[in-house]
């Protein structure tokens, strides 16, 4: 079964009481997308603040978006109205990044979760109704499993290229070290290969066909059965790569601390240029 649903499929599912829809609008320059949510969202969708419910905060050396505890995530999921056996469908307005973070965490926690392909843009393009209320639902009773099995630590990320493939999924100019708008050091983790997240999407922000996805991964040696992990700036974009990889049968771990943790940790080596280094 696909990790994605189309706008038409979601529209048909809205009448199903076992489906919970969440709106995860987020970006680094707009971490609170609540205003955009109120301007128009899928009817019944609950707004989810990524930076407070799908992440926690601490020292800079932990990265910008450390994983929440399972207790914190469970409390959030219950606020969204999730009960045992529900299916959660997540969407956003930023090419699936926020929704993918929700997918990655909830999947580990034992929840049946999907992502709206193309996000709110696809919903609008299909001509479906938008709501402007601030949805509050009855609290759910879901019990989540422990999370973290699909994550790797900073030390594991450093050693990963010795036994597998480590992907840097940021834009190429950040990988090369030509620019770094968020973190104190520019460049990439030595031996990491660059496959920008955008390589998996079409111009409308929808996922490309499976053959194209497999070819993109294969171009850097990634295939089913080969250990692979990914990092980005703060562990959000890399979750999208995990989502895409899973869609084509590739098990991919995420380094949640990502470049924000690596670049804030003294003594970690840095490579620049278009080669792994």
UniProtKB/TrEMBL annotation:
Enzyme class label: transferase
GO MF annotation terms: 3-mercaptopyruvate sulfurtransferase activity; thiosulfate-cyanide sulfurtransferase activity
Domain Rhodanese: start-end pairs: 15-132, 160-271
UniProt cross-references to InterPro entries, sorted A to Z: Rhodanese-like_dom, Rhodanese-like_dom_sf, Thiosulphate_STrfase_CS, TST/MPST-like
PROSITE patterns referenced in this protein's UniProt entry, alphabetically: RHODANESE_1, RHODANESE_3
SMART domains: RHOD (SM00450)
Keywords: Pyruvate, Repeat, Transferase
EC code(s) of this entry: 2.8.1.2
Pfam families: Rhodanese (PF00581)
Top-level lineage group: Bacteria
Protein name: 3-mercaptopyruvate sulfurtransferase
Species: Microbacterium hydrocarbonoxydans
Gene symbol of the encoding locus: sseA_1
């Amino acid at each position: 079964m696909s990790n994605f649903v189309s706008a038409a499929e979601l529209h048909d599912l809205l009448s199903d009481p076992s489906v919970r829809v969440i709106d995860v609008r987020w970006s680094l320059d707009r971490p609170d997308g609540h205003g955009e949510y109120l301007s128009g969202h899928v009817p019944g969708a609950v707004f989810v603040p990524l930076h407070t419910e799908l992440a926690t905060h601490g020292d800079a050396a932990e990265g910008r978006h450390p994983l929440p505890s399972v207790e914190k995530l469970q409390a959030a999921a219950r606020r969204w109205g999730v009960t045992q056996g529900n299916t959660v469908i997540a969407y956003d307005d930023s090419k699936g990044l926020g929704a993918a973070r929700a997918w990655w965490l909830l999947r580990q926690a034992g929840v049946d979760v999907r992502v709206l392909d193309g996000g709110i843009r696809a919903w609008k393009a299909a001509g479906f109704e938008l709501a402007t209320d601030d949805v509050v639902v009855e609290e759910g009773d879901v019990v989540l499993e422990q999370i973290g099995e699909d994550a790797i630590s900073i030390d594991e990320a450093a050693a990963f290229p010795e036994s597998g493939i480590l992907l840097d999924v940021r834009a190429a100019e950040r990988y090369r070290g030509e620019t770094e708008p968020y973190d104190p050091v520019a460049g990439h983790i030595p031996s990491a290969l660059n496959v920008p997240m955008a390589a998996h999407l079409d111009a409308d922000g929808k996922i490309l066909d499976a053959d194209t996805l497999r070819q993109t991964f294969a171009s850097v040696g990634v295939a089913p059965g080969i250990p692979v992990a990914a990092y980005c700036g703060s562990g959000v974009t890399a979750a999208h790569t995990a989502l895409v990889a899973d869609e084509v049968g590739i098990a991919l771990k995420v380094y949640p601390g990502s470049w924000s943790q690596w670049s804030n940790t003294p003594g970690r080596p840095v490579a620049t240029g278009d080669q792994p280094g």
